[in-house]
Design brief:
Keywords: Membrane, Transmembrane, Transmembrane helix. The protein is mainly α. It has two helices and no strands. Helix 1 packs antiparallel against helix 2 (about 35-125). The radius of gyration is 41 Å and the shape is rod-shaped. The chain starts with a helix and ends with a helix.
Length: about 130
Amino acid sequence: MTTNNRNKDLLIGAVVGTVLGAVTALLFAPKSGKELRTDIADGVQQVSTKTQQAAESIADKTKQLAGTLNEKTQLAAQTVSRHTSEWSEKAKETALSWKNKAALSITEGTTESTENELTTQDESKVS
């Protein structure tokens, strides 16, 4: 935003300075009224043309900047989306791994306790 304000202020300053310089030069030039009016009209036309050219240039640069910004924004969004998908997949894989380990631990724990119970029952039958 600051750059846009600077460009706008610079453009306004250049136009005002050009107009003031041209008017001052014309007023101090030793010419007749008709020549002076013609020179002033020519000066105004030149300033108008330069202002239009500057405005077109700024508009073109703004369009280019907007296009570049749009492309970079889309690229950043795609990158974030891709990373989010990768992280989500890794989280799912980790959760599934922990679930499987927990289930295996529970199964092994149940098997061991069942074997211990059977061993204890067998020993009590022997005694």
